[in-house]
User: Which sequence fits this backbone?
């Protein structure tokens, strides 16, 4: 087995990605508060901004996915009731 194949990770879920994005947000906040270097703070603020945008998008996608699943279940349920 090649080195590349060993390093390939399984695809994560949206929930996993949300958790990792939230951890990145917390780490950015820690750097902004604790690190005294202006350049590090600037980089952390930029990373925080990007992470928050990604987190909001993931949250919206997750909520839309849940709503869509609920609607599909209702449609399937009503179709099953009509056939009887």
Assistant:
């Amino acid at each position: 087995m090649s080195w590349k194949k060993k390093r390939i990770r399984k695809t994560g879920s949206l929930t996993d990605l949300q958790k990792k994005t939230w951890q990145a947000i917390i780490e950015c906040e820690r750097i902004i508060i604790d690190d005294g270097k202006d350049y590090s703070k600037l980089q952390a603020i930029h990373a925080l901004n990007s992470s928050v945008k990604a987190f909001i998008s993931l949250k919206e996608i997750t909520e839309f996915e849940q709503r869509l699943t609920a609607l599909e279940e209702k449609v399937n349920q009503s179709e099953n009731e009509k056939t009887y």
